[in-house]
Amino acid sequence: MEEIRLNVSLLRKRVPNLTTAAKNAGMRPATVSNLCTGKIDLGKAEVKTLVGLAELANCKIDDLIIRGEKRKMIETKIKALDFFAPLVKGGTTGLVARPGMGQVVILAELLHRFKGTDLKTVFLAPTDEHPELEGTIELADQITRGLEDTLEAIRRFGEQAVLVTDKEHVDSGLLFELQEALGNQDSTTTLLVDLSGKVSDDDFPFGPLETVWQLDADLAARHQYPALSPLYSASSILDERDADEQHFQLRQRARNLLRRYRELRSIVQSQGEGRLPSAEVETYRRGERLEAYFTQPFYVAEEFTGQAGKTVPLEQTLSDVAAIMDGRTDEQDVAQLQFIGSL
Question: Which InterPro entries does UniProt cross-reference here (predicted)?
């Protein structure tokens, strides 16, 4: 069967405020968002939704459908990111979090890790002062402060460019101007953050996205970093099955296990583990181990944590996750899996 996906890049360029436009056209923003990230298979989309999107973008429906082209992921070697919601090369990723949940540390770690690759990072700085960015923004290969110098940097770096910026430049329209100026040759990988944290309340954060990294308040409160939500983070690579089938199936299994683990955890917190049904004890303990495994020491945090940063290739992560879910770590304490690299 031919692979098809939504032309998110075209939507982003043609419809700068898709949330409002979709609502005004009678479409549910959440449905549009799920089509962009692949949570909803494009082949199952309602015709009226595709017609509405084509009208908003002033294009034909065929222009909104990309056929047969595989997306490529940028492997960060951060277990939770690569496993649950891979970064799409040439796509747009939004980091959804409230202040204090670790989004700036994730951003700093990515900038640090990209320095050891062919990628070149451009940080389009916010106009407001953000003290929390001190020591992070300097990790970028180039810091820019306006349209022209950002354009110049991206054109110089070409397909290896990774643009990082705050939601402020989405709201002001500057990002839209930048993408318009780059035109059809825009192959920039874009990473959007929201330092205000207000994006967490939006139905359709940042507009069309190929990848959503949503941080989880409960994980952050328990210092389970990086606090990536395994249930609400998504990537078009996985949800459109552009990735390896083993990865897709393992991600589905892991999500199901962690979803049930969270339900059981609420029982344990209020009534104790002894109240768990005997048939669910194994599920609870494996979920606990899997959640612990997805914590990871970061290089940029070494001086604060005293733990050396760890790099884990995706292939190793897949092997480790399968081992945990198949019971091969049942004899290990949860603490033995906390903040490690690979098994």
Answer: ATPase_alpha/beta_chains, ATPase_F1/V1_b/a_C, P-loop_NTPase
Pairing state of beta strands 161-166 and 120-124?
Answer: parallel
Specify the residue for token string 């300097």. Answer: 138
Q: Can you say whether residue 70 is alpha, beta or left, with left for phi > 0 and alpha for psi between -120 and 50 degrees? A: beta
SS3 state at 232: coil
Give dist(CA 83, CA 144) in Å, integer. Answer: 31
pLDDT at residue 15, rounded to an integer = 80
What are the distances in angstroms from CA 23 to CA 16, 50, 155? Answer: 14, 14, 35
Q: Is the previous residue joined to 226 through a cis bond, with omega within 30 degrees of 0?
A: yes
Specify the pLDDT at position 1.
Answer: 44
**Domain made up of 4-67: CATH architecture:** Orthogonal Bundle (1.10)
Q: In what order do the strands lie in the sheet with 142-144?
A: 142-144, 120-124, 161-166, 189-193, 92-96, 211-214, 234-235
At 214 the three-state DSSP class reads: strand
Looking at residue 239, what is its pLDDT?
A: 65
- CATH of 245-337 among 1.20.1600.10, 1.10.3720.10, 3.40.50.2000, 1.10.1140.10: 1.10.1140.10
> In the chain, which stretches have pLDDT less than 50?
1
For residue 187, the SS3 value is coil
